[in-house]
Specification:
Length: 324
């Protein structure tokens, strides 16, 4: 892409004065995550050598889901710290024209010459400027997720699509349980060590509240096996996904607590070969900016045929048990 074309695209998409206005007028809602720390953790992960197996899996799934959509998207934004991987995945679909990688430090994908500094909590896009927003495992670290979804919805053109994957509520449940029990035994108290993740129903409701049409949510659960809990924790560090909670404990982790956590993890979540399990729950969200061409939902009670007839079964009145 030529420099002049890049300038045209950037001028069309971004409004820097609006960013300053957005930041100046942002509501003082609850702050859960230390976002500067999260960005520093991502930079540390790059120095250590990023563990990208989970992002790669999600990006591959994202490309597969997008390939099933029967239309083309002229302008797409790969949103968040995983924008480089998402950009490459979007390129493989053949359904996307211009791709902009938008993240907190504007890291470029090799084949994606457009990159901008953009925080998910203060997006710099004009209303109705984008056809597709794709995000992989970054929106779960946004303090104001409803506000971020509203901003994405406004940035989409009519009939534009949001396709995003977030970490769900059962992510790292084994690590959370093992740490909680160890701290209760050793430290006489529990400190927040694993971020709270939203569940499927809550995220579906947020899509509707943000004004998306045809919202869809589903779950993919991935179980990864490690040689030990320490190997899992090192992998999380290389993902940039270690504790970024604002209310995290500032005290160093005691060796006795760590040893007890490793024991509990092995006792409760190890397989016969001694390797331990770690759950990653991936919640998928998709929603469309409203457009007149979209099929509206049917009015309750407007069906012309009974469900029992369509399924070829006998309808059972409420309160009666089916015959055995």
């Amino acid at each position: 892409m030529t420099l002049s074309l890049r300038r045209i695209v950037l001028n069309a998409l971004f409004r820097w004065a609006a960013i300053r206005a957005t930041l100046a007028n942002m509501s003082s809602g609850p702050v859960i995550f230390d976002r500067p720390l999260l960005r520093a953790r991502c930079r540390r992960a790059e120095r250590l050598g990023v563990s990208d197996f989970l992002i790669a899996r999600v990006a591959e799934d994202l490309a597969e889901r997008l390939s099933a959509v029967m239309r083309r998207f002229d302008t797409a934004v790969a949103l968040g710290a995983s924008g480089e991987v998402v950009s490459r995945a979007l390129m493989t679909t053949g359904k996307v024209g211009t791709i902009v990688s938008a993240n907190a430090w504007a890291k470029f994908a090799p084949d994606c010459p457009l990159a901008v500094v953009a925080d998910e909590e203060a997006l710099p896009f004009q209303d109705g400027a984008i056809d597709l927003v794709a995000s992989a495992l970054t929106l779960q670290f946004v303090n104001d997720l409803p506000g971020a979804l509203v901003q994405i919805r406004r940035a989409l053109r009519p009939d534009g699509l949001l396709l995003a994957a977030l970490a769900g509520g059962e992510t790292l449940t084994e690590l959370r349980q093992a740490f909680a029990q160890a701290e209760a035994e050793i430290d006489d108290g529990i400190s927040p060590r694993v971020a709270p993740f939203a569940d499927l129903r809550a995220l579906g409701s947020l899509l509707q509240r943000a004004g998306f049409a045809l919202p869809v949510t589903d779950i993919d659960r991935v179980t990864v096996r490690y040689s030990s809990p320490l190997a899992l924790m090192y992998d999380l560090r290389r993902m940039g996904a270690t504790n970024g909670l604002l209310e995290r404990s500032r005290k160093p982790l005691r060796r006795a607590t760590l040893r007890r956590m490793i024991e509990i993890y092995g006792e409760r979540f190890a397989d016969a070969d001694g390797r331990v399990r770690a759950t990653f729950e991936i919640v998928w969200l998709s929603g469309w900016a409203p457009h007149a061409s979209q099929q509206p939902p049917l009015t309750p009670g407007s069906a012309q045929r009974r469900l029992a007839d369509a399924l070829g079964t006998k309808e059972q009145p409420a309160g009666e048990k089916a015959a055995r």
